[in-house]
Amino acid sequence: MSAPTGTFDERVAKALANPQLKIAMERTTGNARRKRAAAVEAWPHFNEARRIAAAIKDHVIDNYEHYLETFERNALASGAKVHWARDAQEACDIVVHLCLASGGKNVTRAKSMLGEEVGLPHALEAAGLHRVETDLAEHIIQLAGDPPSHIVWPAAHIAREEVAELFRRHHRDNSNSDDVPAMVASARRVLREEFMAADVGISGANFLVADTGAICTVTNEGNAELTTTLPRIHIVTAGIEKLVPSTEHALQLLRLLVRSATGADLTQYTTFHCGPKRVHDRDGPSEFHIVLVDNGRTRMLAEGQAEMLRCLRCGACMNHCVVYRQIGGHAYGGAYPGPMGSVLTPNLLGLAATRDLPSACTLNGQCRSVCPVDIPLPTLLRGWRDRSWREGLEPKKTRNFLGLWAFVAARPALYRLGITFALPIIRLFGSKGWIKRMPLADAWTSERDLIQPPARSFMAQYAAMKKGAKK
Amino acid sequence: MLDGNASNDQPKPRVGLFVTCLVDAMRPSIGFAALALLEAAGCKVDIPPRQTCCGQPAYNSGASDATAPLAKLVIEAFESYDYLVTPSGSCAAMIKVHYPELFAHDPAWLPRAQALAARTHELLSFLVDIRGFRPRGVSCASTATYHDSCSGLRELGIEAQPRALLGAVEGLEMRALEGHDACCGFGGTFCVKYSSISNAIVGEKAANVTAAGADLLLGGDLGCLMNMAGKLHRGGASTRVYHAAEIIAGMGDGPAIGEAVKP
Lengths: 471, 263
Fold this sequence. Notes:
The complex is a heterodimer.
Chain A: H1 8-16, H2 19-41, H3 46-62, H4 64-77, E1 81-85, H5 88-101, E2 106-109, H6 113-118, H7 120-126, E3 130-133, H8 136-144, H9 160-170, H10 180-197, E4 200-203, E5 207-209, E6 214-219, H11 223-229, E7 233-239, E8 243-244, H12 247-262, E9 269-273, E10 287-293, H13 297-302, H14 316-319, H15 322-327, H16 338-349, H17 351-354, H18 356-359, H19 366-370, H20 377-390, H21 396-409, H22 412-427, E11 434-435, H23 442-445, E12 450-451, H24 458-470
Parallel strand pairs in A: 1-10, 2-3, 2-4, 4-7, 5-8, 7-10
Antiparallel strand pairs in A: 5-6, 6-9, 11-12
Chain B: E1 14-17, H1 21-26, H2 28-40, E2 44-46, H3 56-60, H4 64-78, E3 83-86, H5 89-102, H6 110-118, E4 120-122, H7 123-130, E5 139-146, H8 150-156, H9 160-167, E6 170-175, H10 190-193, H11 195-212, E7 216-219, H12 222-234, E8 240-243, H13 244-248
Parallel strand pairs in B: 1-2, 1-3, 3-4, 5-6, 5-7, 7-8
């Protein structure tokens, strides 16, 4: 993932100034929230399943060396080739090398957030390969030249009217209207040719199944199947946190993943890919490569963020995040937006460059309450704030203000004295109960009124009342 | 008139009222409502003078070092009472949930933090869950809608209690609020650190409140109420905003948040 453009504040300002973005985001996330709520409502054992899912993930995380070795052994036995990548650069190098070694030029890709995380789309193009994104939403953002803005709906920021315009400009048969089925048919025509011409297909993995060495993909469009079955070479890129002990465990997590993401019971396609084409198989790749990527995951484990490795990448946290819904995915400046992105991105791009992400959150906890594996996102975000404070990354103004305030608040007599003097002064800036503008209060008063405080605090009024009662 | 139905034959529990820094400075009537309600619920109420702020703004900014002295101050001031009660889900959650985290590696203070946490309650849930209190003879002929503040809702599970109390207020008709459990965009220091995002969030909230079509907007946390009231007022809405405790204590005929208070 390349460094984001502009500062966080600049990206936020740009997002908030775009009314079309708000409409598009609300369509996507509003739908997702309603459908998830209905799915949870219809599943009486949701909370129990959630507890079990978190326990499955924790068990794997606690024993990840064992399960990695088991997975590798079984994958090799199935005829797959297993590659290990410590970081983003190694992951890209391995994939690019495999593509170039194939002698072909055409690479199809089924949506994978790990690929976005390590910057694979850019690496493929830099190597002169012809990259084709086959997920419909990824196809749209490839035409638009945008990075994804949601981990499940990468084109969440683009309204369908804008998609029609993109297709009119880029598709050969440009007679498209805003009609969704017609647009889908047009994309299908374009992508079908690319599927047939592909030399290498790259997918991610929703699960790495240790006891079979298989990988599992879930999609609604069937593009992963065409990406992985038609070309001669299938490359899987997956983070090591995708491990599960068995197929049964994968299915248990799948029930939560799909309901949390789209509200459906199951995706249209759930495919377990195990090894290359065997002698009597009619279809399938003759080479099957699995690239297992760490890229900071073992460091997260060591640095107290183990719970984040439970993440199934369902997107429920961002669908329910009041901040994400206002600013969209691009403002976060990383591959992963929303609450889970605000925990992950500082790991990937460094805290100094991303300290705004964990701070730009109201800690309202809705993300955790909808998380299918109960990741304590607010606690993890606060952990980054602690570290940012300790490392001196917070702005000087914030440090000075909080330091002064804490000094005074720790001395009740001084604090009372301060309040006694401050209230009548603040009152001067308002009239009839409201303050419209006040020096140093612009952040509040630029867009909302501030209530005019009383002349005397509660403590002062109460003390006077008690004194009066004694007389 | 406020006459509760808590039983009187048992010894009165001693309650230390933690007023909160916002109520102290910005809206004293919430403190007086809390005092009246706790007394009506059969408690002996003290207001320890050595109280300022629970330390949440520093804690949520990552400044644990600056938070600890404030937390110690609260623990010292309140640990001798049977209960610490506060008219804020956010401050209650700070003491109940986060003080033990703050002192997790401090063997001297951890037991004291845990002991206080166990006896700390948000006002409205304390009245219902611990005191079995309902207001009697309190009326408020209005329609009202309710915003569930996040810390109280999700860290303390407060949702039914304020509605049970408001349901006992005669003449008060409750209206549903779309997104009643979604954050209003206050978030403590968030609202000034990221004011443009906060404004966008509270703008959506204000639209939902207006659409609910109620005379009153009620809630249990002054920070959120100031945020929503300020946005509603800037937009020219006529919704009047109160802390739920004020209505339950029969103070609904007093000025709403932002209506001129006599100095």
